[in-house]
Design brief:
Elements: H1 3-9, H2 28-38, E1 45-48, H3 55-62, E2 66-69, E3 88-91, H4 98-108, E4 112-117, H5 127-132, E5 137-140, E6 161-166, E7 177-178
Parallel strand pairs: 1-2, 1-3, 3-4, 5-7
Antiparallel strand pairs: 4-6, 5-6
């Protein structure tokens, strides 16, 4: 097995190279599954701070939410910009910045949901982060989303991901709850 094959099996995509700016659009069904689970009221104001080309923004707006999309490519770095007025923060952060996004969301103090690699919590260096403020919900997807759906057509994705939800009003907050999400029929 060569390095490219090993990387792809472990969830990388080096056979295709890294996307410019680490931009991997979120397929609509990924956002749909989270929104269906959360059941937020229609007037919810959501900040999507790593919106890229707006794929998640459009899906959330289709659900009737008021969405503000910002992105570092627009000169708005979530890790340093002043917070946007919102009820929730929902995003698919660059995986290499996930811990920074979690800490920034915690600092802002709004309920939030981040899409993470499934193995995100499988690292000793993240144990303290988990123990400090564990997510209320860990929601693994029961399918592998194709983050290259716009560039290569229908591929065979190899990376498992999950949504982690913190401080969700109306949802249990004692301990972390694990609930796999089925793939929605769109």
């Amino acid at each position: 097995m060569n390095g490219t094959e090993a990387s792809r099996i472990s969830g990388g995509n080096s056979a295709y190279g890294r996307a410019k700016g680490d931009l991997y659009p979120t397929p609509p069904e990924v956002t749909y599954a989270l929104l269906d689970f959360l059941g937020l009221p229609g007037n919810t104001r959501i900040w999507e701070p790593a919106c890229g080309n707006g794929d998640m923004v459009r899906e959330m707006e289709a659900w009737g939410y008021q969405v503000t999309g910002t992105d570092i490519s627009m000169g708005q770095d979530f890790l340093t910009v002043s917070p946007v007025s919102c009820d929730w923060i929902i995003t698919n952060p660059p995986f290499s910045l996930s811990e920074g996004f979690i800490r920034r969301c915690q600092y802002i103090g709004k309920p939030f949901a981040l899409l993470l690699k499934s193995q995100f919590w499988h690292a000793r260096k993240r144990l303290e982060l988990f123990q400090e403020d564990p997510p209320a919900w860990v929601l693994p997807l029961t399918w592998r989303p194709d983050f290259l759906f716009k560039t290569r057509g229908r591929g065979a994705p190899l990376m498992d991901v999950l949504w982690c939800v913190w401080a969700a009003p109306g949802l249990p907050r004692f301990g972390t709850h694990y609930q796999p999400l089925g793939r929605p029929e769109l």
